[in-house]
Amino acid sequence: MNEMTDGHIVTSYNNELNHLHQLVIRIKDLACKQVREAAQSLEDEDVELAGSVIVSDREIDELDVQADEEIIRLIAKRQPVARDLREIMSVAKIVADLERIGDQARRLARLTIRFYDGDVSPPNSRLLDDLNKMAAYVNVMVDDSVNAFDNLDLELALDVIRRDDQVSEDFRSALRRLSTFMMEDARSVGHIVDVVLGLRAMERVGSHAKNISRCVVYLVKGKDVRHKDLDAVKAEIIAASE
């Protein structure tokens, strides 16, 4: 609970906002678990775990629907304005990003099944090194972005936005290394294409974490900083504080 959900004078309204807030935390925990286990399934060549990740994505989808229903009901019942409306709209956007993170984890898990549950020879483990590192990195970003929401922590939100540049750089570096592998062994092209799709999925997880952090800026400062780079976001925060 943050100072926004904690400060409403109507107790029942405050409880409803807090329930929505806790729903975000629950979906984040599930989404991070999905990314972590999808990467673990690749590292351990664990097809059963990958299948579990794919099935568990339904739980995130169901919570996404539940959150939408609660948001619509809350808007219709309370007709929120000002910061209450900003919080509800922020929650709607954050839940949508978390649901898409679950989808990206499912894509990663499908790679495990493709690589290790068939007649195709598995890839060289070196091809997967960058994938596992990126999955770990972006998962921390997701956790931090929702912690920034939970604590209304602008500094942490800005740090997550900054780290997305590192994700983009890591993605480009991984592509260069894969190109080298491909030149050394043309037979690995099929696996490399699959690994690139996995890397792209993890890059998108980082982008979703950045989107969540931008929602925190909107929630705290009332400034819409979608599609703006880090320097522009900082400028908007300073302008809103003056």
Automatic annotation (TrEMBL):
Its main location: cytoplasm. PANTHER family: PHOSPHATE-SPECIFIC TRANSPORT SYSTEM ACCESSORY PROTEIN PHOU. Residues 25-111, 131-215 form the PhoU domain. Homodimer. Belongs to the PhoU family. One of its GO terms (biological process) is intracellular phosphate ion homeostasis. Pfam families: PhoU (PF01895). SUPFAM superfamilies: PhoU-like. Keywords: Cytoplasm, Phosphate transport, Transport. Plays a role in the regulation of phosphate uptake. This is Phosphate-specific transport system accessory protein PhoU. GO terms for cellular component: cytoplasm. The keyword DNA-binding does not apply. It comes from Sedimenticola thiotaurini. The keyword Isomerase does not apply. It is found in: Cytoplasm.
